[in-house]
Each structure stands twice: as structure tokens, then as C-alpha cells.
């Protein structure tokens, strides 16, 4: 089979997997809802559970509310968050030419977490209120963007002077640890209410995003993903080295700035509303490379975006499997699925041990 046909076949399989996982994610929840009832909701007609009193099924209005207000938004957030983290991870791995780069490992997610902590925990400590829900949501998103941008700008400034990938990686981890230390200080000084909310937020979840937050998350991530797709040719040139890219006429500082903005929007926004979700950004691009066997970003970027959506949906499904009364923290599942991929990358990359 030719390479082109293999690529299209892989895209088709992933698209089918996303559709199947999307349906499975909507089906799962604390209340059992039949597939035909969900179809009835999307068709806009009466639910098959119309005779709920006799059959034991939920009333159609309740089914509609659960599907449209809880489960569908949760699945949509998983699709957008997975795509965003995967795209930002691929950009960072290419920009820093580091297979272990990612928004979580390089401290970008920690920077966003620090920004959110300063907003959620710092304001009560100072005796200030966070205002209404709209102001609170915009404040959380803005704080995450500023925190992510600050860390990423620092890493980029250092990478311009130091070319050793391990030095940059260690620096990112240290910066992330420093941000974590400030967050722990804020936690120690915070009242019980805000502290509990922040701790739950750090565990990661795609099911706690409200309608107003979704109205911010989707368009902002759409802009970031659009920028990522628009940068594929520049990323291909950067893959061959900045010097070569300059000889081909690429304006490297401008491209770096565009990647900087895109990564800040993607990683910062997802972290703001879903928590500091780890391992998706670093692991998914490598999974896409293994599936497609192609380093061309014209293939790899959409492949990473689609694979990220599929993986995040799978993680959300796995997090709900323990039972109706309990769900696992999303970060626990992403770590269990992502760590084997990272270990495989380290073992296969001999340069890491040289």
C-alpha cells in the first residue's frame, strides 16, 4: 500500500474512533440512558423514554437536560482540550527540537496553574472578591494566559542562548517546581473554601466546565488551533534547524512569536478551565508519529490534533469506569496512559543517554 493511502486510512480510522468514543462518553454517567434515547434528543423529537413511569426509564425532559447540559459539553471539552494540548506539545517539541518538550514538562502548565492560583487563592487572602461568574471566568482565563506566557517567554529566552536540549528541559522542570512552591505557599495561607476548590481543580476534569467557560474555551482554542495549522510549513523548516530556515527566507523571530502566542492560548486556556492536565502534550505527538510514520507537519499536525481528541475522550471514559458514585481524577488516567509512551521515547532516543 502506498504511503498516501496509508495516511488517509489512518485518518479515517482515527475519525471513526473519535465518533465512537464521543458516543461512548455521552452514554457514560451516573444515570443509565439508552442509546435510542440519546438519538431522540439529537433528532429533536420525543424520547423513547416517554413511558418512563412504566419502563423505569428517565423522563424525556430529564434525559434531554442531562445529555445537552452535562454529557455533550463534557465530551466537547474533551475533544477541544485533547486537540489543544497535543497541538501545543507538537509545536514545542519542534521549536525546542526536544522530544520530551511539552506544556506540562517545560513548566508552561505550572505557570498557568500559578496564575490561576494567584487569582483564586490570592484574592481571598487579600480580602478581595472575584466578582460575578463572567468576571471570575475571564479572570481565571487571563491569569492562566499570563502565567503560561511568562514561563514560555523565559524558556524561549534561555533556549536562544543555550542549545543543549537537556539543559532547557531541566530548566523548565525547575521553573515549574518554583511555580509549584509559590502555589503551595498560597495554599497554606488560603481559607478552607477556596483551597478545596483549587485542590479539586488541580486533579483535572473536563466535566466541570460551565456554559460560560465553554463559550470562552472553544473560540480561544479554535484561534490557537488555526494558528497551529497555519504554521505547519514554518514548523517543517524549523525541524531542519533555524540556520537552514533562515537561508530559506523564514523570519524565525516572527514564527517564534506566533508559536508563543498559539501555545499560550492553547495550553493556558485548557489549564484554566480543565486543570493542569499532564502527559497529553508530550505523549500524543509521539503516538501520532508512530501511527503515521511521517515527520511532515502537514500530516503530523492534523494527526496530533485528532489523536489528542481521541486520547482525551478515552481518558475521560476510563475515569468514569469505577462506578456511578466515583470518578477518577483525569490527571491520574492521563499519567497512566502517557507514562509508558514517554518511557518508550526515552528508551528509543539514544541521544538522551549520551
Task: State the gist of this model.
The protein has 354 residues and is mainly α. Helix content is 75%, strand content 0%. It has helices spanning 3-27, 35-43, 52-55, 60-95, 108-120, 122-125, 133-159, 165-189, 192-202, 211-230, 232-239, 242-247, 252-274, 280-292, 297-319, 330-348.
The secondary-structure class comes to mainly alpha
Terminal CA distance: 37 Å
Number of strands: 0
Order of helices and strands: HHHHHHHHHHHHHHHH
Stretches where pLDDT falls below 50 for ≥5 residues?
A: 47-55
**What is the share of helical residues?**
over 70%
Percentage of residues in DSSP E strands: under 5%
- SS summary, helix count: 16
Major β-sheet, in short? none
What's the assembly state of these chains? single chain
Overall mean pLDDT stands at 83
Rg over C-alpha atoms, rounded to the nearest angstrom: 21 Å
From the spread of the alpha carbons, the general shape counts as: globular
What does this entry look like structurally?
With 354 residues, this protein is mainly alpha-helical. Helices cover 75% and strands 0% of the residues. It is globular. Mean pLDDT is 83; it is low at 47-55.
Task: Describe this protein with a few key phrases.
mainly alpha; globular; 354 residues
